[in-house]
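Is this the right way to post structure tokens for a design question? Let me know if I should format differently. Anyway, here goes:
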């Protein structure tokens, strides 16, 4: 490169983009492009990939083509370049015929420096013919991982790019991505015919990001508490479905958080407004499907939350990379449950066999990452083929596993077993097969290869499959094993592993997190209290108080408040009527009747024990969710037959009764006499009434067992329980 050109680069960098110096590999990449060499750039999100092709496009003659997968990404980058005074345009399906004609004329006349093109637009014959008449400097393929079936966002159109660009002459190519495993890198190079190209690989480490995984229990409550702990800061929450995006955005809104949804199902004007509001800080939190954020240059996103488990570690890495792009703090939180993985497995069932297997392998890697108690940073970097030797994460506590280390165990003998099995099975198999041999599982696969006859078969059968998979993964992380790039899933012994077999040394492995007991998350906000988190001492005090109040009022204790309500009080410490009314199963009716006793007791306890109350984590239900309840109350007030109310709301009778119970347990008094009188005579009503008045619990199971003469149906007992609670508790 000429000295004058080098000076020009630095001048343009400062003059147009406002930077005094290049970052990382930017300068060497730009020089490579200006030398007309094919260039492959792997650089983490936020490290300045875009500048690598934008700057050379400005200092060279001709038009640079940028192939980009998303319209939102194109618009954002074009808007930014236009703001810098650069004539950049995009060609995609949003343009009218007249706009396309004018754009093509400007390109042919040499007025446009960068043209962003969707891969679908590039494949159209008329656009290829138009580009043949334009002087093109080079072509940039952004988000190049989309080429690979092993990439997290595979786009079949990307596989046609090389052939189409070939029709435009022998153009220099620059392929760029933030997320490419060694296998994906191989696929990109092969598909674009870029063998021998210069590869610039930056570290995948984002040292300013804090990584955390939490079990997906009471996720809504924890989410609100987390966001309120980042009050006024910008954040992104990712969900897998549009429905969940809408639900979470509404949940945040009614809890006083400025939030908005973003997904492909929204009208484009609404979607763009929500995106712009987020960029302009009118909205603090955007709740989105994964489409949001690609190419969005918002440097001050302080947190990224994955409410649902992502489909792959590449996707997770790219999405978390949207936090802290300014180099300041970024908190990356993921809620994890096996149920999310099961749902994603079901989504894949209709895919072709190969694609389904690929998707399953990616999900397995995601599960390994979430469940492992090894440094998150070490795992992520290892996945992308980079060894993390630094102890900064551990020293600074920059992931949950380094901040709160799990129990360690001596791993030398276990690692030796793993390596011996890999060797004796000819280094041709994956994690599950190796695990089966160690455990002594005579699967069809194991028997067909006669691995059940190996001396080492069943050597580890006193431990579990999960344990051996942990050992296998950590043997990989310690680089004693390595992945075979050409044969996905196959594990081979590395040079380091061979040395370890000859000269074993002590190594420390870490026990995994155990998420196996996680059930389906309860979506009803009435059940979102983690019963194991309450204050035992306060709970005991409240139970004793309930007993005294019940005795004074001559009522069974459960009529005052049920145990789940007391547990929540012992979790959130409500000290005002408004806070107490927010507790599940309370409501303002019960607050007026019994609340003062409990508020006084809690306040006294809080003051004596110097406790900071957690009223900011009370989850409020949205007005939308309350519509059904309001409608039911109105219909009952009008004495509409319950069967008719159920039918109107697409419920069966038992489902309707369940809704009425929720209303009643929240403290609203309902008069169902008009309906009960039709199905039960006075004597039967009195019998059931007396039962509940003297019972120690309102358990329906016990009531049915007590009334085992089949005289009363479950519907009758439940309706009478509602009548009883309405008259005595509300």
């Amino acid at each position: 490169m000429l000295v004058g050109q080098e000076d020009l680069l630095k001048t343009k960098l400062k003059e147009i983009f406002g930077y005094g110096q290049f970052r990382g590999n930017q300068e060497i990449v730009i020089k490579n492009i200006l030398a007309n060499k094919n260039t492959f750039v792997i650089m983490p999100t936020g490290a300045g990939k875009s500048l690598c092709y934008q700057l050379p496009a400005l200092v060279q003659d001709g038009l640079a083509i940028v192939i980009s997968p998303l319209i939102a990404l194109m618009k954002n980058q074009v808007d930014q370049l236009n703001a810098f005074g650069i004539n950049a345009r995009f060609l995609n399906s949003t343009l009218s015929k007249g706009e396309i004609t004018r754009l093509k004329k400007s390109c042919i006349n040499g007025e446009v420096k960068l043209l962003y093109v969707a891969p679908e637009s590039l494949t159209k014959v008329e656009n290829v013919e138009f580009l043949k008449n334009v002087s093109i400097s080079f072509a940039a393929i952004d988000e190049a991982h989309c080429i690979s079936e092993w990439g997290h966002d595979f786009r079949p159109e990307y596989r046609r790019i090389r052939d189409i660009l070939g029709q435009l002459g022998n153009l220099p190519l620059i392929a760029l991505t933030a997320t490419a495993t060694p296998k994906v890198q191989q696929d990109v190079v092969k598909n674009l015919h870029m063998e021998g190209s210069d590869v610039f690989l930056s570290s995948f480490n984002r040292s300013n990001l804090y990584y955390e995984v939490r079990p997906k229990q009471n996720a809504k409550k924890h989410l609100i508490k987390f966001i309120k702990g980042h009050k006024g800061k910008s954040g992104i929450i990712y969900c897998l479905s549009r429905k969940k995006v809408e639900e979470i955005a509404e949940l945040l809104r009614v809890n006083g958080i400025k939030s908005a949804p973003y997904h492909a199902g929204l009208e484009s004007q609404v979607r763009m407004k929500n995106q712009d509001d987020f960029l302009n800080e009118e909205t603090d939190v955007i709740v989105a499907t994964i489409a949001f954020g690609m190419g969005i240059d918002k440097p001050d996103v302080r947190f990224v939350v994955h409410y649902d488990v992502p489909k792959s570690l590449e996707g997770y890495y790219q999405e978390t990379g949207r936090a802290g792009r300014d180099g300041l703090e970024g908190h990356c939180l993921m809620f994890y449950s096996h149920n999310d993985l099961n749902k994603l497995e079901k989504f894949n069932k209709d895919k072709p066999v190969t694609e389904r297997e690929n998707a399953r392998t990616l999900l397995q890697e995601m599960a390994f990452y979430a469940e492992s108690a090894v440094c998150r940073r070490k795992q992520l970097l290892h996945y992308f083929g980079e060894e993390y030797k630094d102890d900064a994460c551990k020293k600074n506590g920059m992931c949950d596993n380094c901040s709160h280390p799990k129990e360690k165990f001596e791993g030398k003998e276990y690692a030796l077993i793993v390596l011996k099995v890999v060797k004796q099975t000819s280094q041709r198999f994956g994690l599950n097969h190796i695990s089966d041999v160690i455990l002594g599982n005579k699967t069809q696969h194991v028997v067909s290869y006669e691995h059940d006859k190996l001396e080492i078969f069943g050597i580890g059968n006193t431990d579990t499959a999960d344990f051996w998979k942990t050992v296998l993964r950590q043997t990989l992380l310690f680089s004693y094993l390595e992945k075979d790039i050409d044969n996905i899933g196959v594990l081979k012994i590395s040079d380091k592993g061979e040395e370890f077999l000859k000269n074993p040394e002590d190594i420390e492995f870490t026990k995994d997190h155990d998420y196996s007991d996680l059930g389906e998350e309860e979506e009803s906000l009435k059940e979102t209290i983690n019963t194991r988190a309450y204050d035992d001492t306060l709970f005991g005090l409240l139970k004793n108080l309930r007993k005294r109040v019940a005795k004074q009022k001559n009522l069974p204790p459960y009529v005052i408040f049920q145990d789940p309500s007391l547990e929540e009080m012992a979790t959130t410490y409500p000290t005002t009527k408004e806070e107490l009314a927010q507790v599940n199963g309370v409501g303002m009716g019960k607050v007026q009747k019994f609340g003062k006793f409990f508020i006084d007791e809690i306040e006294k306890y809080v003051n004596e024990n110097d406790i900071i109350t957690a009223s900011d984590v009370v989850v409020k239900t949205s007005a939308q969710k309350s519509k059904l309840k309001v409608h039911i109350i109105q219909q009952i007030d009008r004495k509409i037959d319950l069967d008719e109310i159920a039918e109107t709301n697409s419920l069966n009778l038992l489902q309707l009764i369940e809704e009425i119970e929720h209303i009643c347990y929240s403290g609203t008094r309902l008069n169902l006499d008009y309906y009960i009188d039709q199905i039960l005579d006075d004597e039967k009503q009195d019998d059931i009434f007396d039962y509940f008045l003297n019972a120690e619990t309102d358990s329906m199971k016990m009531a049915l067992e007590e009334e085992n003469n089949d005289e009363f149906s479950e519907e009758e007992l439940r309706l009478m329980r509602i009548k009883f609670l309405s008259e005595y508790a509300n």
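Format looks fine. Someone answered above. Worth noting: The chain has five domains: 3-201, 209-349, 412-506, 526-617, 623-728. The domain at 623-728 is CATH 1.10.10.1390 (Arc Repressor Mutant, subunit A).
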